[in-house]
Design a protein that fits this description.
Amine oxidase domain-containing protein, FAD/NAD-bd_sf, 2 domains, globular, alpha+beta, Polyamine Oxidase, Chain A, domain 2, 318 residues, 28% helix
Length: 318
């Protein structure tokens, strides 16, 4: 009998959490991600000597299990509490959000800048992955797809039971502008969430623990509705529009031109309609799908989906 070996496509929090469970049980696991590093929505972008958190700005917990996990990560020194919201405790990774994904991946086998495009069935119930450069990876006994639902659907075209369910996950885009200023503005609150208009949230990164810099750094997120309307716009144009909206919303006098003013588009930023499942499994019991869209739209949902799938696989394939 071939020893179990699992490939996980996607190294966001769902994929990393699943891999943590599997490697903790001694199961050979390899992760693949098309980006230059792990993280997904925990990703940060470096510009000159500055970094910008482009996805999640902080972590919160609605379940006891995830709160315990956050406290464990805090004890490990990769996240710190940030009293930014009165509704519930919040944490941030330090010195940037991507530090958490780097921490989680440090003991894992991870292939970055590797875009998997096909799943090839092999004799003896084995699987091989094919990337965009036609490199073949494997063989593996089980496959986990931990990408956004739309990307997962493209990979599992030979599994109608999966594609039918994934079609129910409605994903939305999000534009994010980020900029650096020489002037130190003093907003009333480091996180501003308008009730209407094109802006969903504006975050002063310098206010986060461990993120103080001489230049003031901001990340401004657009609403899904506005992002959809501007989905094919140029990043330069979107950056200018969101910067102007930010000035208007915060009632600020325009400082001198930002030293950095750019925008990033998350094409599959969040799920409008979750699947209300922990994870998905193909009829052959060898191909699985996990992600935030299975349970919700938060990082907690991604962690729950990946962790639960990892726990189930630990029990069933050993």
């Amino acid at each position: 009998m071939t020893p179990a070996s699992i490939a996980i496509i996607g190294a966001g929090l769902a994929g990393l959490s699943c891999a943590q469970q599997l490697t903790g049980a001694g199961i050979k696991t390899c992760l693949f991600d098309k980006a230059r590093g792990p993280g997904g929505r925990l990703s940060s972008r470096r510009r000159s000597e500055l970094t910008f958190d482009l996805g999640a700005q902080y972590l919160t917990a609605s379940s006891t299990a995830f709160e315990q996990q956050l406290l464990e990560w805090q004890q490990q020194g990769c996240i710190l509490p940030w009293p930014v919201t009165s509704q519930q405790p919040a944490w941030v990774a330090t010195p940037r959000m991507s530090a958490l994904s780097r921490h989680l991946s440090q003991s894992l086998i991870l292939h970055t800048q590797t875009r998997i495009q096909r799943l090839l069935a092999q004799p003896e119930n084995l699987w091989v992955l094919v990337d965009e450069a036609n490199n073949h990876w494997g063989p593996f006994t089980h496959l986990v797809i931990a990408t956004p639902a739309t990307q997962a659907k493209a990979l599992v075209v030979d599994f109608p039971e999966l594609t039918a369910t994934l079609s129910d996950a409605e994903e939305e885009p999000k534009w994010v502008a980020y900029f650096a200023l020489t002037e130190q503005l003093t907003p009333e609150h480091p996180v501003y969430q308008p009730h209407e208009g094109p802006l969903q949230r504006a975050t002063l990164l310098n206010a986060k623990p461990g993120q103080a810099t001489n230049l003031q750094r901001w990340v401004v997120e657009a609403t899904p509705e506005w992002s959809q309307e501007q989905v094919n716009a140029s990043p330069e144009g979107v950056a200018e529009l969101l910067y102007k909206e930010w000035l208007k919303e915060l009632n600020l006098k325009a400082p001198e031109k930002p030293l950095i003013l750019e925008a990033h588009r998350w094409l599959y930023a969040q799920t409008q309609k979750p699947l209300e499942k922990d994870f998905l499994v193909a009829d052959n019991q060898q191909v699985f799908v996990c992600g935030d869209y299975c349970r919700g739209q938060s990082l907690e949902a991604a962690w729950q989906s990946g962790t639960q799938l990892g726990k189930v696989l630990r029990k069933t394939i050993q």
